[in-house]
Write a structure and sequence with these properties.
The protein is an alpha+beta fold and 222 residues long. It is built from 9 helices and 4 strands, in the order αααβββααααβαα.
């Protein structure tokens, strides 16, 4: 199924040049027809596919969708609208991707998919580090999984210079990734995927490619 027409890309290109409320209000009907409604259908269908692998993802699709409005309270850029639509399909809401889920962002000529533990809280980070320390070979096998590397290439995340315990410091000699304070992965698809009838199929494939690492992280933080 094709979810997004070329009008999807065109709307965001125009919004980039006119990112203010007056323009958006004049084009609100276009937004609903070409962006909001198709994206809601897309997310609903994606949920239907993903819950086949993980029944915990049988969620209300609309609850997974982020608002198009930007949070500009602490930003120098006061543009009110994002230039994409995004959703996080996860067991316990948008902020629980680390427990097993997927982040999807679609903009003009851009499809980004990600997962893992992005900025986990203190307890989640400690649990994940301890799980890696206890099972370094299993973690390394997930990180070096052939399909994962083919799709995502690597784990992203800033690192701490120090660790909270001697045990973790010793474990980091075996698995240096323990120093990370985020453990997330991202990939992008070719621009033409936005308007492709294979969009869902492509994203499900990317989701499946991360299964060993996703399961490891999910078990550690849940």
């Amino acid at each position: 199924m094709i979810y997004f027409s070329p009008d999807f890309n065109e709307f965001f290109k125009e919004l980039a040049a006119h990112n203010h409320k007056d323009w958006f209000d004049l084009n609100r009907d276009r937004y609903h027809k070409n962006i909001k409604e198709p994206f809601e259908i897309f997310v609903s269908d994606l949920v239907d596919e993903l819950k086949k692998d993980d029944p915990r993802l049988n969620i209300n699709p609309k609850s997974a969708i982020f608002r198009i409005n930007r949070d500009i309270r602490f930003s120098k850029d006061k543009s009110p609208y994002k230039l994409n639509r995004s959703a996080a399909i996860a067991p316990d809401g948008k902020k629980s991707i680390a427990k097993g889920g997927i982040y999807v962002e679609i903009g003009p000529g851009r499809v980004m998919v990600g997962g893992g533990a992005f900025q986990p809280d203190k307890e989640e980070l400690q649990n994940l580090r301890e799980a890696i320390a206890a099972n370094p070979k299993k973690f390394r096998k997930a990180v070096e999984d052939e399909q994962f590397l083919k799709v995502y290439e690597e784990i992203h995340g800033d690192e701490n210079k120090r660790l909270p315990s001697k045990a973790l410091l010793e474990a980091a000699k075996i698995e240096p990734l323990i120093f990370k304070k985020s453990f997330y992965y991202l990939c992008e698809s070719p621009p033409e995927m936005v308007t492709s009838d294979k969009l869902i199929q492509k994203i499900v494939g990317q989701y499946n490619a991360a299964k060993p690492l996703r399961d490891f992280i999910s078990k550690a933080v849940s």
